Amino acid sequence: MIPEKAPGGDVLHAPGDLKKEAHIPSFEKYKELYIKSVESPEEFWADVAKDFFWKTKYTGKFLDYNFDVTKGEIYIKCMEGATTNICYNVLDRNVHERKLGDRVAFYWEGNEPGDEKTVTYRELLQQVCKFANVLKSQGVKKGDRVSIYMPMVVELVVAMLACARIGAVHSIVFAGFSSESLCERIMDSQCCLLITADGFYRGDKLINLKLIADEALKKCRDKSFPVEKCIMLKHLTKEDEASSGSLSPPAKRACPDLQVPWNPEVDMCWHSLIGGASEECEPVWCDSEDPLFILYTSGSTGKPKGVLHTVSGYMLYTASTFKMVFDYHSDDVYWCTADIGWITGHSYITYGPLANGATSVLFEGLPTYPDVSRMWEIVDKYHVSKFYTAPTAIRLLMKYGSDPVHKYKRTSLKILGTVGEPINPEAWQWYYNVVGEKRCPVVDTFWQTETGGHVMTPLPAATPMKPGSATFPFFGVVPAILNESGEELEGPSEGYLVFKQPWPGVMRTVYGNHLRFETTYFKKFPGYYVTGDGCRRDKDGYYWITGRIDDMLNVSGHLLSTAEVESALVEHEAVAEAAVVGRPHPVKGESLYCFVTLNDGINYNQKLEAELKKQVREKIGAIATPDYIQNAPGLPKTRSGKIMRRVLRKIACNERDLGDVSTLADSSVIEHLFENRCYTAV
Ligand code: WTA
């Protein structure tokens, strides 16, 4: 399945000095280890597990699973019976056993240039222990769910690791989500406590996070799910740094006048609580298969799914992917630009890098603020050697040409990574040629919230690169391409990307809905985990992800379900029906093109358009803001009443070649829709 030898010809290779020191220096070595990882997973992962602390050893099989719905319930268990603590492994082990206490864990770089703070492993451990004691004093116990809704500050990492230390399950909600989305997530995972902050800046924009958090808690209360405890970090309104016990410095762009709503019955101040807390906190020893966190991801039915990951498998997998894929060495400074509110931040800002004792940049701001050189300025400032970002950011910066990049030296860079969506070869080439000056391999990492870590990816010194291809599977991952009838295709082919067996980091269930887990990922093709992505394999065996093949859209690397946006639109009293499709966008990858059918007697106008836009922002969040809204008195439907999205996608792109429309019930709607297309974004 993986070629015997690395293909020659039209591929790019890593520079020789990178190969000399690499963990996996050649394609042959990759292949040898890959075979070991799938034929004897126990042996392969035992080597990885050796580096970690285990209170007790596992009792059964290393990896026990059923991947076939026809044979009973789906389950995946890794190292069941072993006890450990992931917080102990990423902090105490580094400070005490590996003597890395003085090593920098994070260089925090605020939104405003000049706002900065350095945090060592020892300091991080102290803060985590203190905050874990705070959580305990609030009655949080092993297994309880805690919701975290915070900006990109070190305290976000402190909050998540404090949960992990006491065996509580964190459920982080990206701080760009609306109060409605936060409420839905708090209720679904039945969180007992919310941790948030007063507010933050995204570029120039001030966001009063506490206000949104309060709205969410009010919505929870209205739906008979009162959350009685909310801990708020003062990020913008803090007065006195010395007494606050906080890790973030006073923001240069502080906002002491921010109007922060306060309910003394519910709200507590992070700083006052942590001030009196002890620095001693024994970790709670957890079983390998105890839940670690829940992270919501869009589902094709519209309701987000609470993806659940457990302790040991996730720890081994994020640690080893981080080490191999970024070829981590102790002198590296690593920077992942993702937000911790997404899986990329969970796995590759918090757990993977810390498990390796790495030094990372934690960036609060935006790539374009205060100007479009900001990324490269930060790379030079901290001598970043491994840099990980998303295609949408690359395409955005590409628009401004190479001058803003050339303003900075970037000589520290060694490896560049991308994640989140297929990277078009043009953006890949710009990243490789302009940012990396042809010195730095690009690792195009394909993975999902559900997979926990990278599943298809080059290894930088071992895998010859093809621009736009996620290349080959990571250790332990066995991909296949299936046709519509579920047959495995051999050789060059295109179809559904599936995986044939689990790896330690794969999700274990959808929180509170195991049936949905089985239906979503295992029902369509029994015996396989179905990714929902299309994939092509070329003559050299390289895999090329072609994008989602379900009703999901990928806007700036964020997955959105069309159903979710449609239901937000239909909730408006003027709308009878809505259909949302993706339209290619040069920076965002896809943009949202919405067709709405209004109720009888209602006129379409700009005011209504603005209301609809606002409605979606409020229901889901700014990432789901419609780019185009078209008034559609009629939608193309099949005779059985199914909306033909395929046709709508063509209309959105003004492509007249509609293919087979013989099942269309009323073809007269098509011309009307073409005539009234939106040409400019709303
Ligand atoms: C897409 C993000 C092509 C894919 C880590 C997947 C990619 C979805 C890549 C998961 C890549 C992610 N090439 N497509 N390198 N990386 N995707 O759950 O469609 O936010 O299914 O996890 O992003 O998005 P999620």
UniProtKB/TrEMBL annotation:
Domain named Acetyl-coenzyme A synthetase N-terminal is located at 30-90
What residue stretches are annotated with the AMP-dependent synthetase/ligase domain? Answer: 98-509
Enzyme class, first EC level, given as a word: ligase
Q: What is its EC number?
A: 6.2.1.1
| Tree of life domain | Eukaryota
Q: Name one Pfam family in it.
A: AMP-binding_C
Which GO annotations describe the biological process of this protein? Answer: acetyl-CoA biosynthetic process from acetate; lipid metabolic process
Identify the residues that the record assigns to the AMP-binding enzyme C-terminal domain, covering every copy: 564-642
According to the UniProt entry, its GO molecular function terms are: acetate-CoA ligase activity; AMP binding; ATP binding; propionate-CoA ligase activity
Report which reactions are catalysed by this protein: acetate + ATP + CoA = acetyl-CoA + AMP + diphosphate; propanoate + ATP + CoA = propanoyl-CoA + AMP + diphosphate
Q: Which Gene3D superfamilies match?
A: 3.30.300.30, N-terminal domain of ligase-like (3.40.50.12780)
Q: Any idea which UniProt keywords this protein has?
A: ATP-binding, Ligase, Lipid metabolism, Nucleotide-binding
Q: Which family does it belong to?
A: Belongs to the ATP-dependent AMP-binding enzyme family.
PANTHER family from the xrefs? ACETYL-COENZYME A SYNTHETASE (PTHR24095), ACETYL-COENZYME A SYNTHETASE, CYTOPLASMIC (PTHR24095:SF126)
Subunit-level organization: Monomer. Interacts with TFEB. Interacts with the 'Thr-172' phosphorylated form of PRKAA2. Interacts with CREBBP.
Q: What is this protein called?
A: Acetyl-coenzyme A synthetase
| Species assigned in the record | Danio rerio (Zebrafish)
What are the leading ranks of the lineage? Eukaryota, Metazoa, Chordata, Craniata, Vertebrata
